[in-house]
Amino acid sequence: MDNHNMPESLRTKRIERAVEISAEMFLKNGIESVKMTDIADACGVGVATLYRYFGTKTAITIAAMTHLWTRLRGTYENLFESENFLKQPGIKRLSDLMHMYLVLYDTHRDLMKLVGEFDLMLQRENVPKAALFEYERSIVNFYPYIEAAYLAGTADGTVRKDVDFKLFYLTYGHSMLQLCKKMLGGELLPSDDFSAGRAELEMLANIAVSYLRIENTGT
Questions:
Q1: Domains of the chain: which residue ranges?
Q2: How many other C-beta atoms can be found within 10 angstroms of the C-beta atom of residue 12?
Q3: Tell me, which fold does domain 1-55 have in CATH?
Q4: How many helices (H) and strands (E) would you count in the chain?
């Protein structure tokens, strides 16, 4: 039973634990199939307590997704600030960064698949953008690193300058994410064949790098 007079620190710990547990349950079973009673049982609290903490399943789902992205970001955030990475030519840095989508596809498939289900939930429930501020901040954001690599490439002569780079980044990012979600969502139509799904993603990344590369740079 939840005690309304419990110390704030204990309440905070319970909320954090509920977020962590629900995140793992969503990763394993998907969002739709996990009920608030399931989360409450796994946390060892009453479902009324869970609703008192979060209000709705949507709210705890947003908190769980924020937690998952924050954890993932901690894995990669220092990688692209290392001396070894920064001393590479701009086009090589861009190539490494744009191929990170393949790393996410290879090593974090459960999360990428969950993102697709989460996006559908947001649309279905018409969640206001104001409720997603912290979630958006938690998402692994490659743009600052990709922009820095692009500027380095234009300076060292390995990357084209005649590019609307923001438009390029948005086009590439949206295309890769949608393709990832489609591949991970599974084959639906009789003609669907995702057996070469990773190769498709790699080809898209290579096309994007080729578009930016100045020919004959050899990089």
A1: 1-55, 66-212
A2: 11
A3: Arc Repressor Mutant, subunit A (1.10.10)
A4: 12, 0
